[in-house]
Amino acid sequence: MVYQRCCRNYSILNIDLSPLPGATYIATIPDTILCRVNSNPEFNFLPPTFICEGAPFSFDHSATDIDGDSVVYEICTPLLGANQSSPQPAPPNPPPYNPITWQFPYSQNNPFGGVPLTIDPVTGRLTATPAATGQYVYGVCAKEYRNGVYLGETKRDFQVNVVPCPMITVASIFSPTIACGSLQADFVNQSYNAAAYTWDFGDLSTLIDSSSLKNPSWIYPDTGVYMATLIAYSGTNAGCNDTTVGEVRVHPAFYAALEIDNIRCTPDFTFRDASIAIGKHADYWEWNLGDGTVSSDTNISHTYSQGGLYDVRLVSSSDSSCLDTVETTISVLEPPQADFSFELDTCSQSVSTINLSTNTALSLWNFNDGWVGPDDQPSHQYNFAGVFRIQLIALSDSACRDSSSQLVSVPPLAEAAFQYEVADCDSVVKFSNLSQRAVSYTWNFGDEEESTMFSPVHTYSLSGTIPVTLISTSSNSCPDTIVQDIFFVSRKKAAFSSYVDSCSGLVHFVGVPQNATEYLWDFGDGTRSEALSPVHAYSSNGTYKVFLTTNPESSCRDTVSLPAIFEGPLGELLFVPSAFTPNGDGLNDVFKISFFRPCERYSISVFNRWGQMIFEAEDAEEAIWDGTVNGQMAEEGVYVYLLKSENGVRKGVAYLTR
């Protein structure tokens, strides 16, 4: 409900008057979801038209709610309203309604200057001491709660006149005077310009309940509500004496208490009021949960956004008068969050984990094949194929835990295996592939031949022990390799030939078939050999009958006999000319060495008399020097030649003449 008018007085000191502001007065009708029948709280008293400059001011802004709802009082900022162009809007302007703007140095809680305004949120008692004369505006809100649920508020907005009071005596009691848990009430005298005082404490059980002290105390016989009277006497004129009456409330002891429930390792807390009062229950609550959260509910469920220590405070009251405070510190544990990813190496059947957990002090892993252990980011190898559940348990340093799991499918691996068979004295080998879980195959038969057939047949030119390699590859491109020696003896006709090295005199036996497993030679001079292609030195010239037996210890043996003729070596012979005549007559025009029965390969270099090399060639047998140097005819004279081989150097001279 809204009521708007223009305008406020030009003489008001504590608000911005440009443009001249109006006023808005509101009362809230709550939604029927909250309550179906409700009356707003009604303020009990109208404030005085003036208050004294420099004098303590106290006024009861309490309100009565006929529904019995709880009322909480606050100092609030008055609202702007209608303006000069529309001083009486009908209907009123819609919300939202803006607050007035305070003129520096005034504010909501200090609208008069001097001692700031305060208001008791339970009783509505407002106190202040204005500093200077003038006209001021202030606001009071009465907020209405039913069973801890906010219904709405009623806002009152007043202009007050502060005037000098040099000859006025004002009797004032800080009221209500509250005694909580004790029968003794301590009175606060806020009178102004008084010379003496008389108190009547309203204790009907005695006639001596009086005092002339400024701030007395009185012990009442029992709890209850009493009315105390104060007479303030003027020091100049008895006609200026003033009297005031203040309420005294003597309450039994009240103790604020709270209970806390928490599901361990979660940030979820429930705070419950457990305040203790004689014959009553708390009806006012002010919670501060330590993370900026405040509430006036009876009980609160709250989830903290992060872990840590929080100071929780409850201010409660049993009758809107006696307040008590309880504080405690809670520890909100930071729960761990388990999370991970992994990479699977299908060929090694191993997984590598990546730990993505947070707030974790210890990680426990279960790879579902019998291995469980603590590690941060373990790698694990499975011994067989299958589907496994990897589980990570994350533990915080407060022993809180969380878990996460994922399935990993480990595919089967290929297993290479084979057998072979070969007939006696044959070289055709049949291979039987015994591999499992493979889709492709690569054979290496050990003789530089390969095949990709499943079970190949291979004809060897070799025999004996031969390493055969089979690589079997699975559908996941994972290979398995087996190397296995095969052995067989094949019957091949023994054969050989021989020749004599004219330089060394050694007889070389060659042309031997290489598919035998063993060889036995009889050179006809009483000596033997088991080499494949032996070299033999005979001691004298002659013709020798040589026998070769292949596979001598098996049923696949074969023997051949051939003569070997040996003549002692004649040795190397070469001719180097001592002179040549490069004159173009076709006779002896070049320098060339002639070789007969060469035993070595020579390079040749030719030098002049000053040691300069003027000709060279890698093969002296093919080299020809035409007697020129860099395309010019060489000078006549003596030249030195060098013949170099692996076994030494030969040198000599040749004469060039024309």
Describe the overall structure.
With 658 residues, this protein is mainly beta. It has 7 domains: 2-163, Immunoglobulin-like, CATH 2.60.40; 177-251, Immunoglobulin-like (Sandwich); 254-332, Immunoglobulin-like (Sandwich), CATH 2.60.40; 340-410, Sandwich (Immunoglobulin-like); 418-488, Immunoglobulins (Immunoglobulin-like); 497-566, Immunoglobulin-like (Sandwich), CATH 2.60.40; 573-656, Immunoglobulin-like (Sandwich), CATH 2.60.40. Helix content is 0%, strand content 46%. The radius of gyration is 61 Å and the shape is elongated.
- CATH homolog superfamily of the largest domain: Cadherins
Report the CATH topology name of the largest domain: Immunoglobulin-like
For the termini, the CA-CA separation is 143 Å
Count of the separate structural domains: 7
Shape: elongated
Helix content: under 10%
Strand content: over 45%
Q: What's the total count of β strands?
A: 57
According to CATH, what is the class of the largest domain?
A: Mainly Beta
Query: Structural class of the secondary structure composition?
Result: mainly beta
Strand arrangement within the widest β-sheet reads 12-18-17-14-15
Counting H and I runs of at least 4 residues, what is the number of helices? 0
Radius of gyration: 61 Å
Mean pLDDT: 91
Taking pLDDT < 50 over at least 5 consecutive residues as the criterion, the unreliable ranges are none
Main β-sheet: number of strands, strand sense, barrel status?
5 strands, mixed
Q: Architecture of the largest domain, CATH level 2?
A: Sandwich
